[in-house]
Amino acid sequence: MDPLVLEARFQRAVYKGDVGVLEGDFRLRYGERWAELWAAAEGAGEEDVRRADEHSDELCRLVESRIDDRELAALYAAYGRSLSLEGEVEAGLELLGRAGGLERLLRWGLVMHFSEDVVAAPPYLAKLLIKLGGEASRPRVNLDEELGPYLRDGGLMAFVEGLLAEEFDERLHRALYGEVPRTVRLGRAALYRPEVGLVVNPVLSAGELLEELLRVKRSRADALAKALSLHGEYEFSLDHRCGLQYISVDGTAEKSGVVAICPWASYSRKLWRRTRNMVLVLEGEPPPGVERPWFGVIYVRGGEAKVLKPREPSRLFEYVVDVLYSVGFSVAEEGA
User: Fold this and answer.
1) Helices then strands (H, E): number in the chain?
2) DSSP-H helix ranges across the chain
3) In what order do the strands lie in the sheet with 296-301?
4) Are 188 and 146 in contact (CB under 8 A)?
5) pLDDT tens digit string along 165-217?
6) Residue 68: Cβ-neighbour burial (10 angstroms; 0-12, 13-18, 19+)
7) What is the model's pLDDT at position 103?
8) pLDDT band at 327 (very low <50, low <70, confident <90, very high)
9) CA quadruple 102, 106, 108, 111: dihedral positive or negative?
């Protein structure tokens, strides 16, 4: 059987969804012959899937003959195959420096739509993908350079960290920073679009990006804890993703608790289970029109501290504010 017909019948057999998207693939891949091959693929089914696998070598040669940008094909084969939603693939290629590359992948048949939203390489191309992947050069992504311009935006960092850790809390974010970002671009490291979610550069993993964010966060939390000069045991907790200063002033429950020292907020569920006797310290400024929180929050920038009192009186919070005054912070108390 003609490899073009094999390819066309395979896609019609596996595709589920809006026929207009499938037709678009045919038009892109086959040009003027699309209607002819559409008709030739009528009635395709499981037997055509099996037949494509049996003729994988021919189909690999067909697809390889169409490729006119070997570097793009190799990048996708090496790093893009873990992405399957169309928006994810587009975002991943953009982060790899090949924005708009999805159309070429579809034209070659290196990927195809399996549904309206899902694009992937057909399984009969396994040998070709291994070959192409072996030709790819690993793009250099320096996280220090890519993240550097954004690390002082606490709301942005809290949002990205929450997504990476799969613990983003929109209610908390709005309470601490105001509006949730609509779109995010962290250089070539990651981007966020609401219709797709957070996509990390395919050269990296989400774990690598989160680890780098926490490395920076730990360094800054340690420095902030030193500047605050609070008494008690201090540690940076990877589980809570912030610094924790354990305080017991006079042995009473009212003046004992934990100060969470976070350059940007952590939405760790482990942290927020303990809000009854907790004070949160963040770097930055409170958002305009912020409401009085149900816990005490202190925003620190340089030698200034803006204090948002909790709704219920807290002796622990009062103690922390007293310490800020005593070590020379300029304190502006709000939420009285």
Assistant:
1) 15, 12
2) 3-14, 19-30, 34-40, 46-54, 56-66, 70-75, 86-95, 101-108, 126-133, 143-147, 154-164, 170-177, 206-228, 269-272, 315-326
3) 233-237, 242-248, 256-262, 278-283, 296-301, 304-308, 330-334
4) yes
5) 999 999 999 999 999 999 999 999 999 999 999 999 999 999 999 999 999 99
6) exposed
7) 97
8) very high
9) positive
Of the candidate ranges 52-61, 129-138, 148-157, 251-260, the one whose mean pLDDT is the lowest: 251-260
State the amino acid at position 186 in one-letter form: L
Neighbours of 244 (CB within 10 A): 22
Query: Are the CB atoms for 271 and 242 separated by under 8 Å?
Result: yes
Compute the distance between CA of residue 139 and CA of residue 299 in angstroms, rounded to an integer.
38
pLDDT at 292 (0 to 100): 76
pLDDT at 254: 60
The secondary structure of 153-167 as a DSSP string is -HHHHHHHHHHHTT-
As beta bridge partners, residue 190 has 186, 200
Domain ranges of the chain: 3-133, 143-210, 217-334
C-alpha 262/C-alpha 127 separation (Å) is 48
Amino acid identity of residue 112, one-letter, is M
- pTM as predicted: 0.91
pLDDT tens digits, residue range 278-293? Answer: 999 999 999 888 777 7
Residue that the structure tokens 């350079």 belong to:
145
- Within 8 A by CB and 6+ apart from 50, the residues are none
DSSP label at residue 201: -
Which residues have CB under 8 Å from 160's CB, separation 6+?
184, 186, 190, 192, 198, 213
Using the predicted structure, report yes or no on whether residue 276 has a pLDDT greater than 80.
no
Is the pLDDT reported for residue 82 higher than 70? yes
**What is the phi/psi pair of residue 251, to 5°?**
85, -5
